[in-house]
Every structure is written in structure tokens, then in C-alpha cells.
Amino acid sequence: MKTIRFGIIGCGLMGREFASAAARWCHLPEMDLRPELVSICNRTLSAAKIDWYRDNFPSIKQVTCDYQELLANPQVEAVYCAVPHNFHAEIYRAIIASGKHLLGEKPFGIDLSANEAILESVRAHPEVLVRCASQYIYYPGVQRILQMIEDHAFGRIIEVDSGFLHCSDLDPNKPINWKRTNELNGQYGSMGDLGLHIAVVTARAGWEAINTRAICLNIMSQRPDSTGKLVPCDTWDNATLLTELKDPIRNDNFPWTLRVHRIMPGERNSWYLNIYGTKAGARFSLKNPRQLQILRYTGGEQSWQNIDMGFETAYATITAGIFEFGACDAFMQMMAAFMYELSRGKPLNGAAACPSPEEIHEGHRLFTAALESHKNKATVAI
Predict the structure, then answer these.
(1) What is the pTM for the complete model shown?
(2) CATH of region 137-321+355-381
């Protein structure tokens, strides 16, 4: 089995998820390529954070606070990068220019211009594999829906309803962090942080966004800092978009409602997707991640079928199908998609491909139009 030596830039929450998934690579018995962690980079080298990596990954030979040092290391062949959005354009472009493959966290740029600068680098270096980390599409229920889209099983699309709902920011005493400031997170607010996890589905389906009307809310305009002092919290907490999509194959238009809410009472981490068509409907939510609801209409009485998906994955694992699929499994499937394409030069199939920069770019176009729509209280063409 060939080894690809990885560096991690950004050793926080998602960096640890990547490292942990790499450590469990034996869970994927059919992969012919495996990751090995050899270098890590973080802006501050706190002992507690770095010791976790050193204690668990003896393969790490380089620890640095300068990402340029990591990129200069000839042992590093690929990079997983999870840094605040304002650093994406600078660091992602540097990674690509260095010739190292990149799996980067969304949104691939703090705004549309930053995203387009990254895309220019991607096009200038076709020899480098560049993909976006977005794991939710790898839940078995979502994979089934994506395959239905690919097979044109829905008939004419009537409507799409989807969203990502949190409630963690409902507490006004929750301290501010970088995702709650426009300077570091970007003016998209929750759309750039959460919305791309949903927008990748419509982009992958090939549905073109024609126009959008958006309403954004800054519900908690102040939050305490580390000293307890109230400081401005200037990002959009919630955004609701009504977008007109076009199916270019059937030349049909239909509405898509997208809710991206950091503050939604009763929710915790509910990614959901509902698609309604003339031949079939499908409903999935992380509220009940094992259940997929399918309605197939052939005339006469209609009935939703509840399917227990089990552990049905695009990339084979050692886990039996009767068991439940979870967040760590989705992240590993996403990594497997990246590694599979790195090994074979093409994705396993359309549904199981790792999100591309071009798919993420469609989300940037949508959210840029959404900001304009909210500002002018009008529908904006995309």
C-alpha cells in the first residue's frame, strides 16, 4: 500500500478529526493508499494542543508555527488545512503553488473575490488535487438521495427544502470567537460557516441558481470576550434564502428554501434535505440519521416508506451493515473520497466524489447575491 505523507495546518478541532481518521485507516480495507501524518503547523504552539499530536502520532517529525516551513518540507506531499476564513486565500494559494495536494476546509475564501483567487491557483496547477472538506453528504441517506438525483429518479423537481440548524448561540453569555466576527469569518456569517455544507448538494446536482431573496438576522449583536466585557458580534446569526433553481436537463425551474441558522431553539446540529418531485420524494435529517424517507409515486394512493439505512457506505469499511453511522464515519468517508481520487485520478462515482472548488464556488455566488438581496430587500439575479 502506497503512503501519502500529510501535513496539517491548523491543529484545532478539525485538525484533530483529520489526524484521528488517519490513525484509523485500517478501517477501510479496500483502500490502496493511506495517509501518514509527518508535520503539523499551528499559529501558537500550546503544549496541551501539540502534546496530543506528539503523544499519538510518532510519525510527526516537524512541528512549526510557520506554514511556509511546512510547505518547504519535501517530506510533505499533501496538506489538510483548517484555519480561519480570512487566511484561506493566502494559505490555500501557497499550498497549491508549492505543488502539494490540498484538502481544505470550507468556505475556500472569506468572500467571492478570495474564492476566485483560489480558483485561479487551482486552474494554474492542474497537477495538484484540490478538494473541499464537507462531510455531511457521506451519510448513507444522503448518498442514496444523491444517487437518485443522478438517476433522475425524482422526475420533475417540484421543490427543495434544506438547511443547517444550530442552537448553541442561543446563550447570550457564550463568549465570542473568530466565527462571530466579520473580520475573521467574513460577511456571509452563518452562510459561509454552515451554508456550504448544504449548497454543495444543489451544485452537485447541476441545478443552476437563477435568483435569490434572502433575509438575514443578527440576533446577538454583543457577546462577552475572554474578560467578560461585551464586544460587538457583527456576523449574521441566521439566514433564510428562497432561491429559484433551474434543472438544465429538463429546462424546468423550481424553488429552493435554504435555512442556515446558528440560533434555532430546540436544534443542535440538524443538517436536513427534503426533495419533492413528480415521480419521487425524499427526506433526510441528522435528527434521525439512520432513517431515510422515500415516496415513489406511480399513481393511486401515496405512502412514505421509512428505510433504516444502517452502515451503507460508498467506501467499504470493516463495520457491519447493521450498525449505526455517525459523524466520525462521515469524516473518514470524506477523506477516503479525497484519497481515492488521489490514487485513481477520478472519483468513485458522482455521488461519492469529494466536493470540488467549482462546486464551492457556486455557493459563493449564491451567498454574495444573498447579502445584496438582504441589503436591498429585493430579489437578486445570480
Answers:
(1) 0.96
(2) 3.30.360.10
